[in-house]
Amino acid sequence: MTENYTALYDQHKTAGASFTDFGGWQMPLKYTSELAEHHAVRNTAGLFDLSHMGEVWVTGPDAGAFLDYALAGKLSAIAVGKAKYSLICDRDGGIIDDLISYRRGEEKYLVVPNAGNAKKVAAALAERAAKFDVAVEDVSAEISLIAVQGPNAEAILLQLVPAGQHSLVTELKYYAAVEVGIAVNGTVQDLLLARTGYTGEDGFEIYVPNDDAAGLWEALLDAGAVHGLIPAGLACRDSLRLEAGMPLYGNELSRQVNAYAAGLGPVVSLAKESDFVGKEALATIKAAGVGSTIGQKLVGLKGLGRRAARGHYPVLKDGMLIGEVTSGQPSPTLGYPVAMAYVDVEHSEVGTVLDVDLRGKAEPFEVVALPFYKRSK
Amino acid sequence: MSKVVSELKYSAEHEWVAADGAGPVGIGISAVAADALGDIVYVDLPEVGSTVTAGETCGEVESTKSVSDLYAPVTGEVTEINDGVVADPALINSDPYGAGWLFKVAVTDEGPLMSAEEYAATNGGEL
User: Fold this and answer.
1) What is the pLDDT of residues A330-351, one digit of tens each?
2) Same-domain pairing of A286 and A238
3) Domain span at A235
4) ipTM score for this prediction
5) Residue in chain A lying closest to B94 (CA)
6) Which residues of A257-289 are buried (b: 16+ CB within 10 A; e: fewer)?
7) Which of A269, A291, B20, B22 has the fewest CB atoms within 10 Å, counting from its CB?
């Protein structure tokens, strides 16, 4: 597999990042200490390069109807300027990817799949588009994505936005996006700014052409210096999203998993009138009670000891195998181990104490409600 | 690049051994290993009085990102453990060859150990 490099690779290298492969991309794992980066995002702000994420434009008279068919949610129902978290499913209900769609016009959506799934998603969308008057254009290779996350994110961003447009930023709601002028390389450019994130904090994601990515990155770092902004890698991104109870494709979500087991039932719109790929299978799965009365469901686990559970560790009840950990590590914010796991529904009630087989030794974990961490408003 | 201290000996599993003559030897993990693990948040050490065997696991080191077995680089009785590092495992990251030492062993048998030069050549550390 050829390695992909983002337009910010040189910035990361200069900053002393250690790199990791993620979805075929060489991405910064951490710059200094992943714990320091984690705490910065919770307490001040962190700057993330998310350019490995995909960007697919869906345009045309049928754009809304097409996405209603291609995705599990009702995308035609969202207002222009808003965003929606959704799933793209297989015919059998398996999850091909989880993604965010931004409605940028009556006939215009930006669909953002995960890095490792971007090509698969673009291909599936193109294939599903056959009967619709719609154009599907994968622009992932041309667009960089930079996120500023943390309580100081808004103050940092405002320094780069002309005063006359400040209200566009300050009044931007969570899961909404707007074109706003941002000063990059000495000129103000209109860039797509979304109030979204994957950290459990307030924050923004900015879509920028590759050529301006380095300029924006540097401008944000300069503007953020007095606000405690530091570059943050994928290591802390993972610990932040885990604390926030957000699933990661490849860990919690896969083709072998359905929305109901993953706790994403509300994302699936069985009520929408039109057919969508996976609807029949998902209706059957829901009617059977998967994730509620039969099968397994995704739960949060809180470690009662100090040792952390990790992905793929077995979950036990009275010595019997009843599930498997999907993600786990010590929570930097909370100070105890946290994990997500699929467990048999009969052992999924909050308060149930289960064991995780930590490399041969059973350690107690308690089922807790997700998310583990929720920011105070 | 991660530092390798030239006065120490090293095991293939990244433990260092301070073989400074008579008496129990100090043992820790190399900066190469500490940097690769990331921020260490938990360490499980052998008990004082227990016997460790060269090449066998005797504890574990857990970081935010991963967990790694601790292998005894020598055989012998554990005479002392570093309570400071148990209380503050971050010392292993900040000072792996000093305040981040792990335990001491009265050696009866050395496992296969490398010189600092050999270890650095194999593991990419900087002397």
Assistant:
1) 999 999 999 999 999 999 999 9
2) no
3) 4-53+142-242
4) 0.76
5) A33
6) bbbbbbbbbebbbeebeeebbbbebbeebbeee
7) B22
